[in-house]
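Q: What does the predicted 3D structure of Palmitoyltransferase look like?
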Amino acid sequence: MFKNVFGSGFLVRTAHVILTWVTTLILFLHDTDLRKQEETGELAQPVLFVTLVLLSVLLYFAVSLMDPGFVLADDDDGEAKLTLGTGEEHQDMLSQSAKSLRQRRCSLCLLQQPMRAKHCQTCKHCVRRYDHHCPWIENCVGERNHRWFVLYLGVQLLALIWGLFIAWSGFSPAPTWDLWLRGNGLLLAAASIMGVVSVVVVLLLGSHLYLISHNATTWEFMSRPRISYLRHCGADQNPFDRGAPANLWSFFCVWGIVSWEQMYFREPNDHA
């Protein structure tokens, strides 16, 4: 279920953890509201903030080390389910090009690819419902860990915004810019890092929630003309879209591997 901690992404993960805790330590060392509350014995907010940061680090490692949905063998069961779920009469009505979509075989790992899977050159595996390979976590984002990735982004954003408010409370005035930078330079650096990362996380979280609400992936959105099962669809047509509420419910609340072939070949008026 989890990858090797000391794999190729060890340096990236180590740098992320060090930067996170160094930034948190700076917030405690400067004369911020967090430090004042700690010194007066009001530990509720300091403990809650550290817990939130710790949760973000744990979610980071979970998403980073989790199997994103690697295809390790031909999915004969999935093919059987598709055959059982599609009537013989319906099979005859399908065009030959539509039928052939289920027979894709990866040219690199030579395994039969489920629909919406893609081979990742970095991970050297096909990944179910491939979204993208994220250098931040040094892992793919796919069907098994995508919801955890979005949850991680949400928790990380809360910690960053709270950290920015804490940093703002710690800036002390000075008569000259030179003295101000000497007294607040380290805190300013920490706040700048949190600000830049916050912008990145907001953009990532917003784009992922938008795509999830349409039951689309980053790869499908960016490479639509080159994807065999989408290139024949209209520009605004997504065969997997069942409406934002159903898409969000399915993404966050329905667990397990989905047979996307059944959804793709299902009749438009079939809501079962």
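A (community wiki): The structure tokens above were generated from the sequence. Residues 177-213 form the longest helix (37 residues). Strands lie at 70-71, 118-120, 125-127, 132-134, 139-141.
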